[in-house]
Design goal:
The structure is a homodimer of 421-residue chains. Chain A is of the alpha/beta class and 421 residues long. Chain A has 2 domains: 110 residues, Urease, subunit C, domain 1 (Roll), CATH 2.30.40; 296 residues, Metal-dependent hydrolases (TIM Barrel, Alpha-Beta Barrel). In chain A, 37% of the residues lie in helices and 21% in strands. Chain A contains 16 helices and 16 strands. In chain A, strands 1, 2, 3, 4, 5, 14, 15 and 16 form an 8-stranded mixed sheet that branches. Chain A has an 8-stranded parallel sheet with strand order 6-7-8-9-10-11-12-13. In chain A, helix 5 packs across helix 6 and helix 7 packs parallel to helix 8. Chain A is globular. Chains A and B meet through helix 2, helix 5, helix 11, helix 13 and helix 16 of A and helix 2, helix 5, helix 11, helix 13 and helix 16 of B.
Chain lengths: 421, 421
C-alpha cells in the first residue's frame, strides 16, 4: 500500500534523539510511504513514489500528517475495579486514613485484581487497550503489579499474552511484582523482597520459558520509593532479575529521591521512569548513559501536583528523554497519549516536535526496540498514524480529543475517525 | 422512546444550584426517562416506567450513566486559521514581540477570520461543533469577536445561524465585537468603543430584527481587561446593548481585576466569566446576585498558569458557579467538556458531582435557559447523554478521552461510541 500526498510526513529517521537533538522530525512535505506486508519498504516524496509504484493500492493523506505510531513505554493498563469513589473522597477533603478505611488506595486495586477472573481482567483491560489504540498508541508496555502474589501476577501475564495475541495492539509486558509491599508482608518489605527474589522471579522465569516467542521478553521493574522498596531492596530485586536474564526498568524519584535512577544506570536498565525529584548527580548519570529517562506528566497532572520531570536539565545533560502515559487507576486514567503530550508541552516545556520524538523514537528506545519501532524508515515495522491535522504542531496545541484519522498497525489499516451521521 | 435500566440516572432536578448546594445530582438508580418528541415526558424508576409504558420503543442503558447534555456557556468556537506555529514559538522561548512579528496573537486570528469566506468559516467551525457535540455538549454558546468590524462580525453571526439551523447542535450566539480593540483603532480604545456603540450595536439590532425566531437572541459580551476595554468603556458598551434590549455577559478578571464582575452584577448580566483575579468584594457581589459565575479552567491549563477561578470562595459567598470550555485558538483548543471537568476537579477542587452540576443546570442558567435545559425533568428539552461508565464519578476521574456512548438532542439519537472492528 502506498500512503501518499501527506501534508507532512514525519519520518523521525535516525537513532534515538539524545539531549539537544530531541525534536528532529525529519519532515517530508508532500511525503509518501510504501508498505509491504508488516514492513515499511520505501519512504520519500509523493511525486517520486507515485511514479515509481503506479500499481500499488493507494491511500490519500492529503492535508494530513503521517507519523510513526505512538509507543507508550510505561503503563499499568491491566487492573480490576476502579477508584472513582476514592477520587471524589479526596476532593471532599477526606484524609488518607479515611480513604483507606473506605477501601481506597493501591491495595483496593490489588484486592479487586486478585478477585477478578482472568476472563474479567482481559475484558476490563481490552476496553483500555482499545481506547489507547484508537488514540494512536500502536505499541504499549503494560506492567503487572496489582497481584503482588505469584498466582495473580502470572495470571496478569497470561491475560496480557492473550490480549497481545488478540491484537491489533502490540503489548510489551513488564513484571512489577515489586509495585508495593504485598499485604501478606505488611511492615516487612525485606521479607517480601526476599519472596520476590526467591519465589516470584523464578516463577516468572518458568513462565517465560513456557511462552518464549509468543510475546516479547518481560522487563522486570521495581517501585524504588519511600513506603515501597528502598534502594538496597530495589538493587536485590533488579540484580536477581538480571541474573535470570531479564531486561530492567525502574520507577525512580516519583516522590522521594532514593537514588533509583543511578541504580538503573549502574545495572544497565532500559529506562528510569517518573524522575520528578531526581538529583543533579542522578541527572548527570542518566545523561552519560543509555538508560532512557521516561517522563510521565499525566501523573503530576492527575494528582494536581506542581512538580514535573525536569526535561530541560535532562536534555542539557545529554539524556534520552521519552514520554509515557502511566495509565493507572490511582493517579492518572487517561488512554490518550496525545493529551499526555499536551501536558508535557505545557508543564515540561517541550515543543510539539520534542514531545513527538519523545513518544515515538525515544519511547521505542525505552523498550530497547528502536531498531524495529518508532520511525518511518525502510525495514521498520509498518506502524503509522494518519492525523486529521495539516501540521504536526496541532499535537500539543490541541488537547482532550482524538486527532487520529487512521491507525496502521503491522500494515493493517484501522479507520478511527467517523463522520457524524 | 423509553431509556431504561440506567445504573445511575442523574436528574439534577430543581433550580440552579447556589453556593454549597452545588453538586445535588438527584440520582435515580435503575432509572428511566420517557421522551416524547423533543421533550422529556416522565422521569422515574425503571420498573415503574417499564410497566407503565410497555409499548414505548426502548433503549437499554444498563450499566451506564444517563444525564442531561452538557451546556457549554462560553466558547469562541468560530474562527479562521489556527495558531499552532505560535504555540510552538512560545515554547521555544520566543518573546511576545517576536511572536507578533511572526504573525501571532489574537490579531492574526482576526486577519484569518476576515479573509475567510463565510462558507469557509462555516466549514472550519462545523468540525469543532461536531467534536464538541460528540463529546456531549448538546448546547453551545459561541461568540463572535474575531471580526472586529461590522461586516465580519455579522458574517460570523450569519455563519452561526446557518450552523445552528443545520444542527444537530444548538447554538446560542453572543456578539463580542468588544473582544479586542480593532486594528483600525489601534491605541484608541475609546474610539472603537464609540464605534461599537454607535455603529456595530445598531447593526446587530438590525440583524436580530431580521432573524428573530430563527435562533435565540444574541448576548452582548465585553472583554473587560487591561489592554482591551477598561471598566468605563465596558460599561458604555454594555449599557448601550442593554438599551437595545440585549442580554449581557462580561469577560471579567482573567488577568487583572478591573471590577468587571461587579459591573456585570450591577447591569444584571446573565454571567461574569473567567474570574481568576476577582476581588473578595466582587465575589461577595456575585454571591448576592443572579449573575452566574463561569469558571473556564481550560484557559489557565492551556496557558500553564497556576491560578484558577476560586471556586471555594464563590461557593461560600453563595454564588452560582458554572463551567465552560472557553474553546478558542489562542489559549485553549479543547472541544471535550469532559476534560474541562477533569481540570476543574483537580485545579478548582470541585468534586465530580459539583463539576457535573456546574456544566449542566448551572451552565444553562449562565445562558438564562434553566427553564428549558440542564436537567432531566418533565417538560424539559430532551437533551441527554448516555455515558459508557457505571458511575458518574468517572467524569473528572478519567480525562482526555470520550466517555459518551450516545447523545440525544431534542429527542433524536446519535450513537457516538463505535466498537473497534
Amino acid at each position: 500500500m502506498l500512503i501518499h500526498s501527506a501534508a507532512q510526513l514525519l519520518t523521525l529517521a535516525g537513532p534515538p534523539q539524545r539531549g539537544q537533538h530531541l525534536g528532529s522530525l525529519s519532515i517530508i512535505e508532500d511525503g509518501a510511504v510504501l508498505l509491504e506486508g508488516e514492513r515499511i519498504a520505501v519512504v520519500g516524496p509523493s511525486p517520486e513514489l507515485l511514479a515509481r509504484y503506479p500499481d500499488a493500492p493507494r491511500l490519500d493523506a492529503s492535508g494530513k500528517v503521517v507519523m510513526p505510531g505512538f509507543v507508550d513505554p510505561h503503563t499499568h493498563a491491566i487492573w480490576g475495579g476502579d477508584r472513582a469513589v476514592e477520587f471524589e473522597l479526596k476532593l471532599e477533603g477526606k484524609t488518607y486514613l479515611e480513604i483507606l478505611q473506605s477501601g481506597g488506595g493501591i491495595l483496593s486495586t490489588v484486592t479487586a485484581t486478585r478477585q477478578a477472573s482472568t476472563a474479567s481482567l482481559i475484558a476490563q483491560t481490552r476496553a483500555r487497550l482499545s481506547q489507547s489504540f484508537r488514540h494512536g498508541t500502536t505499541t504499549i508496555e503494560v506492567k503487572t503489579g496489582y497481584g503482588l502474589d505469584t498466582d495473580t501476577e502470572l495470571r496478569m501475564l497470561d491475560a496480557l499474552l492473550a490480549l497481545h495475541q488478540e491484537g491489533p495492539w502490540e503489548i510489551i509486558p513488564t513484571f512489577l511484582g515489586a509495585h508495593a509491599v504485598a499485604p501478606e508482608y505488611k511492615g516487612d518489605p525485606q521479607g517480601y523482597t526476599d519472596h520476590i527474589c526467591k519465589v516470584m522471579l523464578p516463577a516468572l522465569a518458568q513462565w517465560w520459558q513456557a511462552h518464549q516467542g509468543e510475546i516479547s521478553q518481560p522487563f522486570v521493574d521495581v517501585f524504588c520509593e519511600t513506603g515501597a522498596f528502598d534502594l538496597e531492596q530495589s538493587r536485590q530485586i533488579l540484580t536477581a532479575a538480571k541474573q535470570l536474564g531479564f531486561p530492567l526498568k525502574v520507577h525512580a524519584d516519583e516522590f522521594d529521591n532514593l537514588g533509583g535512577s543511578s541504580l538503573a544506570v549502574s545495572l544497565g536498565a532500559a529506562s528510569a521512569d517518573h524522575l520528578v525529584t531526581t538529583s543533579a548527580a542522578d541527572i548527570q548519570a542518566l545523561g552519560r548513559s543509555d538508560t532512557v529517562a521516561v517522563g510521565l506528566p499525566g501523573t503530576p497532572f492527575g494528582l494536581a501536583h506542581q512538580e514535573y520531570t525536569p526535561a530541560k536539565a535532562i536534555l542539557e545533560a545529554g539524556g534520552t528523554l521519552a514520554l509515557a502515559s502511566d495509565l493507572n487507576p490511582g493517579t492518572t486514567w487517561c488512554e490518550n497519549l496525545q493529551t499526555t503530550l499536551a501536558i508535557a508541552c505545557r508543564y515540561m516545556k517541550l515543543t510539539p516536535a520534542q514531545a513527538i520524538a519523545a513518544a515515538t523514537v525515544n519511547s521505542a528506545a525505552a523498550l530497547g526496540m528502536q531498531d524495529r519501532l518508532g520511525t518511518l524508515e525502510a525495514d521498520k515495522q509498518a506502524d503509522l498514524l494518519i492525523l486529521d491535522v495539516p501540521d504536526y504542531r496541532h499535537l500539543g496545541y490541541r488537547y482532550g480529543i482524538n486527532l487520529v484519522h487512521t491507525v496502521i498497525k503491522k500494515g493493517m489499516t484501522f479507520p478511527i475517525m467517523q463522520e457524524l451521521e
